[in-house]
Design a protein that fits this description.
Number of helices of chain B: 28
Largest sheet of chain A: 6 strands, antiparallel
Structural class of chain B: alpha/beta
Shape of chain B: elongated
Oligomer: heterodimer
Shape of chain A: globular
Helix content of chain B: 55-70%
Strand order of the largest sheet of chain B: 1-3-4-5-2-6-7-9
Radius of gyration of chain B: 29 Å
Structural class of chain A: alpha+beta
Helix content of chain A: 40-55%
Largest sheet of chain B: 8 strands, mixed
Strand content of chain A: 15-25%
Chain lengths: 223, 675
């Protein structure tokens, strides 16, 4: 395969991190640096390499995004990681909290054939021991398809909060105290003109949420 | 006057027999209760570096003096926002004998979250179940006995804005303060798995025999540590013996995170909300109301784009017109009265005492200083404050913020800043004081700068008097266009330059309420009092200093120094420099003085002061433009310093002066180049 030459374990860790962060909304280089505990220039350097090799594209507006190739690579990495975690707990009987580190080491040295066999032995599990979906399974695909940012809903829509991005812990906590938590049922009452704030009803109270805030809340639309 | 919280709270404790804290969500009638229980003698105190204030006052019951601390209205106690932090610190430092939780009966589920937090903290507590009248109209019935039983505390039904139930409330609060009755809630516990972790940590704290920060119950500390509260983690990490507890807390947090795939904080918040929901289900029965109430309908009307935007434009125009016409009429009346009856005898008295010399002439300027305070202060400030308090109390401010947020966001500020900015066209001073409702310093600086650049009525008077009158309305319009473009550019630039990024809007929207007259009057009075204390001394001192500089001729020498800028760069006559400096007192003074000085220096032939004798139309245009942009008046500077601190307001002053000089010169040279 072309471009595979740059795929060292360190590079793969970056792809995985971008993949996971993208599930919670826009990926910002500065946040990526924080998550990887490296300096922003290091991240910029890595992003350039990834982008040169066609794994990611970056833009001012959209932040860092995985290309199709990047997405596939990251998905397969996450899939291998979570399969290994299953294997370590289910087959070898290791404790939950110990398996993440082990899996991080194992995931990088694995051929597609071994990956397939492992999934087969484990009975094609759909989630890792921590409850996160394993990419490539029907359940994960369904969940990814259904969850979308609150900011994409229209006035009158009803939805259930799936998760809130952990990018800004203070915002997450603040929304939590208001009852904007996973599994909360919400109704969009109104949207102000010119991409203004959304008026969201949750357990009897109504809040105006700016578009930026709304884009960080992932929801499942409800009929 | 501003006090530090620690000294103010200590003083309150020593002056009174019991101290009671008032707490609850925003907009639940907490301030109505506070205002009804206490008199006019309210003290406000600040924590250093925080803008959210604590209000405290005293009241008496059966000869006992009781201190009441009004916490800022918040949805929770915590560290995520300034108001939550101040509320928590206020109750921890205030160490009250009792807590009165004000709960909105129309939205009990959301209101109970903070009540549960207070129950965990273990203070003797009374619940005021407020706005019961509206709740009944909405078809909600609360089983008060059962509610009181479940929460383990007395529940007093109240309708605060009609004063119902307040006597019972204060008596119940004093009673629990006296008996130190601890809450005995029935079954306040969370989901089993979370609860078992709380228990483990609570036991570890108890077993360690450790010192408790603020004397809080062990369970409260366990929850705070599980929630990863940064302040309490820091506090306990330096206390002896806490290390293993912190270690355990961090393990338990990870355990919760693994089991639930959510942070422990989110999980616990979820548990509190779920519990609040269960309690409400048990104590409240609800008949479906046949149609939404008046408040709800009004509120939909003002937020829906089709009706809301026209209403907004009308309200903003009304605010502006009221300030402009009522304000300026009142200002004329005041200044006429002052000029007729007060100023001449006052000036005569000064001359009579000191003789006619430089000192008395300088002091006479103090009389003009008071006039400036009267003509700016009472008419514009009072009118605006009444309007603001009215809109705030009714709930309309939230609708404004909702509709204008997307536009304001481009400048890095919230929709909440829209009203002060428009009000700036009447007078900058109350507008700047109105930025207090903004949450971050970044927003306050941007809003403050933008407000200062809105031409106030005095500057509008110059634009009309110097440009529209002599050159025609088209030129006045051109001037407004120049200012408008500059305004937008500076707003956009500030948003880019100032570090940080705009905070996302998260704001509760609540149905309209009938405005409560006493609350409006009190709010207006407190803000107005602030203005008087702030502006009058500065205006007086500024008047005397500038007056003496003018009388002694120092100002003319200053004008000489400035003449390369004034004459060379902006192409204005040297006297204009003096009037621009005097305009710091009051902007209209610039124009009036121009006429006076013109007459005095023998330039102008007739006493009516034909300005064309002093300046050409082009010069007048530049003069008006400079006046509209450069430093705001003394009262505005004082207001800026009060809200933003001296350092930031000096930056803003330097910036506006530089911008005014730059623009004045550019327009001058552009005109020279064209002709």
């Amino acid at each position: 395969m072309t471009g595979n030459d740059i795929l060292t374990p360190a590079v793969e860790e970056y792809l995985e991190a971008i993949y996971k962060m993208a599930l919670d909304g826009q990926v910002i280089a500065a946040r990526l640096a924080e998550r990887m505990s490296v300096s922003p220039p290091t991240v910029a350097d890595m992003l350039r390499r990834l982008s040169d090799n066609g794994y990611v594209k970056t833009s001012r507006r959209e932040g860092v995004q995985l290309t199709k190739k990047g997405q596939e690579t990251a998905e397969s990495l996450v899939r291998r990681h979570r399969l290994w975690e299953r294997f370590l707990t289910d087959v070898l009987g290791l404790e939950w909290d110990a398996v993440h580190e082990e899996a991080c080491r194992l995931e990088h040295a694995m051929s597609p054939q071994v990956e397939e066999k492992l999934s087969e032995i484990l009975g094609h599990p759909e989630t890792c021991p921590h409850g996160h979906p394993i990419p490539g399974t029907p359940r994960a695909r369904k969940r990814e398809k259904e969850a979308k940012p609150l900011s994409e809903l229209c006035a009158g829509d009803k939805a259930i909060i799936e998760r809130v991005s952990e990018e800004e812990p203070k915002l997450l906590q603040y929304l939590g105290t208001l009852g904007l938590l996973p599994d909360a049922r919400i109704t969009i009452k109104e949207i102000a003109p010119f991409k203004g704030p959304m008026l969201v009803q949750v357990c009897g109270a109504q809040y105006a949420l700016g578009q930026e805030v709304a884009s960080k809340i992932m929801v499942k639309a409800k009929k | 006057m501003q006090l530090s919280c620690h000294s103010a709270l200590n003083k309150l404790h020593s002056d009174t027999e019991y101290t009671i804290v008032l707490a609850g969500n925003p907009n639940v009638g907490k301030s109505s209760i506070f205002n009804s229980l206490t008199g006019m003698g309210v003290e406000t105190a600040n924590y250093p570096g925080k803008t959210v204030e604590l209000n405290m006052a005293t009241t008496s019951l059966d000869g006992m003096k009781i201190g009441i601390i009004d916490l800022p209205g918040t949805y929770a106690l915590g560290t995520v926002s300034e108001d939550q932090w101040v509320a928590r610190q206020g109750v921890l430092d205030g160490n009250p004998d009792a807590v009165v939780m004000v709960v909105d009966a129309t939205n009990m589920a959301r209101n109970l979250y903070i009540v549960l937090q207070f129950l965990e903290l273990g203070y003797p507590l009374v619940i005021a179940l407020n706005v019961l009248d509206v709740a009944r109209r909405e078809g909600r019935h609360v089983n008060i006995n059962r509610f009181s039983e479940l929460m383990g505390v007395p529940v007093i039904p109240t309708v605060a804005n009609r004063g119902e139930g307040l006597d019972e409330l204060i008596m119940a609060a004093t009673e629990v303060a006296r008996t130190q009755l601890k809450p005995k809630p029935l079954g306040i516990s969370y989901g089993l798995d979370v609860e078992s972790n709380i228990m483990k940590l609570t036991e570890a704290i108890a077993a360690g025999g450790l010192d408790d920060p603020y004397g809080l119950p062990h369970r409260a500390l366990a929850l705070l540590l599980l929630e990863k509260d940064p302040e309490f983690i820091e506090l306990t990490s330096v206390m002896p013996g806490w290390e293993p507890v912190l270690e355990l807390a961090s393990q338990l947090r990870e355990l919760i995170e693994k089991e639930h795939g959510q942070s422990a904080h989110t999980r616990i918040a979820g548990e509190r909300h779920a519990l609040a929901g269960l309690i409400v289900d048990e104590v409240e029965t609800r008949e479906e109301a046949d149609r939404p109430g008046w408040g709800e309908r009004m509120w939909r009307f003002t937020t829906s784009p089709i009706t809301g935007v026209p209403i907004l434009i009308m309200v903003l125009a009304f605010t502006f017109l009221l300030l402009y016409f009522v304000g300026s009429t009142l200002a004329d009346v005041m200044s006429g009265f002052w000029g007729e009856y007060i100023a001449p005898p006052a000036k005569a008295a000064i001359v009579g005492l000191l003789g006619d010399n430089v000192v008395s002439q300088s002091l006479e300027w103090a009389v003009s200083g008071i006039e400036a305070a009267l003509t700016v202060g009472i008419p514009y400030v009072l009118v605006f404050y009444i309007l603001l308090a009215f809109m705030e109390d009714m709930g309309y401010l939230n609708s404004v913020a909702f509709l204008t947020d997307s536009v304001m966001h481009k400048f890095g500020i919230h929709g909440r800043a829209a009203i002060p900015i428009v009000a700036g066209a009447g007078c900058n001073v109350p507008a700047i004081m109105g930025t207090r409702t903004l949450t971050t310093m970044r927003e306050k600086v941007i809003a403050g700068t933008l407000i200062v650049m809105v031409p106030c009525s005095a500057r509008n008077a110059i634009i009309f008097g110097a440009v529209a009158f002599y050159s025609g309305w088209q030129y006045a319009l051109l001037l407004y266009v120049i200012i408008g473009v500059l305004w937008v550019l500076i707003g956009l630039a500030l948003n880019r330059i100032i570090p940080g990024h705009p905070t996302g809007l998260v704001m509760e929207m609540f149905p309209f309420r009938r405005p409560h007259l006493a609350t409006i009057v009190k709010k207006t009075w407190y803000r107005f009092k602030d203005f008087i204390f702030l502006a009058v001394p500065i205006l007086l001192a500024g008047s005397v200093i500038l007056g003496s500089m003018l009388q002694t001729g120092i100002l003319y020498r200053v004008a000489d120094v400035l003449s390369p800028v004034v004459e060379g760069w902006m192409g204005l006559p040297a006297v204009a420099g003096i009037t621009l400096i005097m305009g710091i007192l009051r902007k209209e003074l610039a124009l009036q003085l121009l006429i006076t000085i013109a007459i005095a220096s023998g330039v102008a032939a007739d006493a009516h002061g034909d300005l064309n004798q002093v300046m050409t139309n082009t010069q007048l245009f530049i003069f008006a433009l400079v006046c509209a942009i450069y430093i705001p008046c003394a009262a505005t500077i004082a207001a800026l310093a009060r809200e933003l601190g001296w350092r930031r307001s000096i930056y803003i002053m330097i910036f506006t002066v530089a911008l005014a000089v730059l623009m004045g010169g550019l327009v001058n040279h552009a005109i020279l180049a064209l002709s």
